[in-house]
Amino acid sequence: MPLPSSNINHNSEDLDQLIHEELSYNTVQLENELHQNVPLLNEDQHVIYDAIIQAVKHDCGCFFIDGPGVTSSGIAAVLISDGRTAYSQFKIPIKLNKSSTYNISQRSKEACLINMMKLFIWDEVPMMHKFAFEAVD
């Protein structure tokens, strides 16, 4: 996705509020959960975890991770603090076709926020229709 243009006129209070809402999680609690859960990873999971952490630190990387499912559609999003489905985050239309686009304006505060994000975890990718990816792209 293109970076937001510097001449875009966002209401900075609205954008600041949106960013604040996205970042208003309890970092101490998340760090405690992380320190409790990372040691439980098996060897393969550790390799993936380490690679993703390094990619986030260096602002690069794209991963496809395949493994046996443990949750039904949308449940994984609610298991993660402030998680949401791809359809919700990217406002992907429910009825997709080859000309579908996502319903976020390029000049919106939501688009600006998406461009600021460093990591997307898109669960159940193999079950998504290719038009969903094309709409987001």
UniProtKB/TrEMBL annotation:
This is ATP-dependent DNA helicase. Residues 70-137 form the DNA helicase Pif1-like DEAD-box helicase domain. It is an enzyme of class 5 (isomerase). Transmembrane segments: none annotated. Belongs to the helicase family. InterPro entries: DNA_helicase_pif1-like_DEAD. It catalyses: ATP + H2O = ADP + phosphate + H(+). Its EC number is 5.6.2.3. It comes from the Eukaryota. Keywords: ATP-binding, DNA damage, DNA recombination, DNA repair, Helicase, Hydrolase, Nucleotide-binding. PANTHER family: ATP-DEPENDENT DNA HELICASE, PTHR10492. One of its GO terms (molecular function) is ATP hydrolysis activity. GO terms for biological process: DNA recombination; DNA repair; telomere maintenance. Its cofactor is Mg(2+).
